[in-house]
Design brief:
Length: about 230
């Protein structure tokens, strides 16, 4: 029996990530179907040819320009006995909201919302290119992750990290392009700290601390390996 994973993803995965995940799926014998960021109505139209050999994973979803996937849709989908998981961005928000309905959570971003360390939906928001789905601005949740990592490595003390997070928070998600964020740090923080953070905002550095991206890759890999262990999959 064929096994299939449908993934709704946009800016949380780079084009190169998607290619590597397709190669992984081929190796594991899983049919990986990549869909654009989910909007209202998509989930209940997702083709499913079996309850146990098909899984759906939401990473990214639209809001504002289109209605977002709703809890009501998710309740109906799960009520059919189907499998649904979420991570990274819109998927993380809905996975935490719908965990008592049976939606599965993956990753650090989900953990922040589940534990209440983060409450605002806006922390995962960003602007993306409507054609390529490439992220144009930096979501606050990623800045939060970066500051934590720098603190754990002893490169940033807690008070300075808190100030840097507040600086990033004051910049609207629509205006939080890397250059603007680096300039905001330079105006407020000591020169050495601002320089440290500005280097992390260089194009080559950004993907390495993109927590939404890292959660997305991990979630897809976890679901692929789970499907590869499907009992009838041989």
């Amino acid at each position: 029996m064929a096994v299939k994973l449908t993934v709704y993803a946009g800016s949380s995965l780079l084009p190169g990530d998607a290619e590597k995940l397709r190669e992984s799926a081929d190796t594991l014998g899983v049919d990986l179907v990549m869909q654009p960021p989910i909007i209202r109505g998509d989930l209940l139209r997702t083709p499913t040819e079996g309850r146990w050999n098909n899984r759906t994973l939401i990473l990214d979803g639209q809001f504002g320009q289109n209605l977002s996937v709703s809890v009501t849709e998710i309740r109906e989908y799960l009520g059919r006995g189907l499998y649904l998981a979420g991570a990274s961005s819109m998927g993380a928000l809905r996975a935490v909201e719908c965990r008592t309905l049976g939606m599965v959570q993956h990753g650090w971003v989900c953990e922040q919302y589940r534990t209440g360390r983060v409450e605002a939906d806006a922390e995962v928001a960003l602007l993306m290119d409507p054609i390529t789905s490439e992220a144009l601005t930096v979501p606050l949740i990623n800045v939060r992750w970066l500051l934590r990592e720098l603190g754990e490595r002893g490169e940033l003390d807690a008070a300075t990290a808190a100030t840097a997070l507040e600086v990033a928070h004051r910049v609207s998600y629509r205006a939080r392009i890397p250059e603007a964020l680096a300039n905001a740090f330079r105006r407020t923080l000591p020169a050495d700290t601002a320089g440290l953070l500005a280097r992390q905002l260089e194009p080559d550095a950004l993907p390495h601390w993109d927590r939404k991206r890292l959660d997305g890759i991990d979630a897809v890999e976890a679901e692929l390996h789970a499907l590869a262990r499907f009992p009838s999959h041989a």
